[in-house]
Write a structure and sequence with these properties.
single chain, about 150 residues, alpha+beta, 5-stranded mixed β-sheet, 4 helices, about 20% helix, binds zinc ion
Length: about 150
């Protein structure tokens, strides 16, 4: 799956359960799920993170664009023209669509979270320049004075 491998660091085993059939409205459909676990870089710290992908598939097969309008709304149209369906391409497409655009660790799991939440804009603050978050004792005294 070359396109998927371009988008992620690694892909685990892919668990595919697809049913091909014809519904009561004579729509040819592909229904089921495609599941795997991928490794993608966290957009905050760039360390790899595991993401479970569970793509629901509910495709209605159309062979001409005019048929898309008539497709019941519960289906995603799959326009195949004269081509045969390549299940491997289909599975890869569904996985690509299901990938998160900007995956991020949960804050407690992300090494970069503290830096970001400290409010530094535009990236890395040189170490030592970090402002103390403790209240300035003189400011406290000043506020006490004001209460006279
Ligand atoms: Zn992270």
């Amino acid at each position: 799956m070359p396109r998927l491998l371009d988008a992620v660091i690694d892909v685990g085993d892919v668990d595919v359960e697809l049913e091909f059939g014809v519904d009561v409205g004579r729509i040819r459909f592909i229904s089921g799920s495609v599941k795997t676990r991928v490794s993608m870089p966290c957009q905050r710290c760039l360390e790899p993170m595991s993401i479970d992908i569970d793509a629901r598939v509910h495709l209605g097969i159309v062979i001409a664009e005019a048929q898309i309008d008539r497709l019941p709304t519960e289906y995603e149209p799959l326009l195949i023209g004269e081509d045969l369906i390549d299940p491997a391409v289909l599975v890869e497409d569904e996985l690509l669509l299901a990938l998160p655009l900007a995956p991020r660790h949960e804050p407690q799991d992300c090494p970069a979270w503290e830096k970001v939440s400290a409010g530094s804009e535009g990236g890395v603050t040189p170490s030592g320049a970090t402002k103390s978050t403790r209240p300035n004792p003189f400011a406290v005294l000043a506020s006490l004075k004001d209460k006279h």
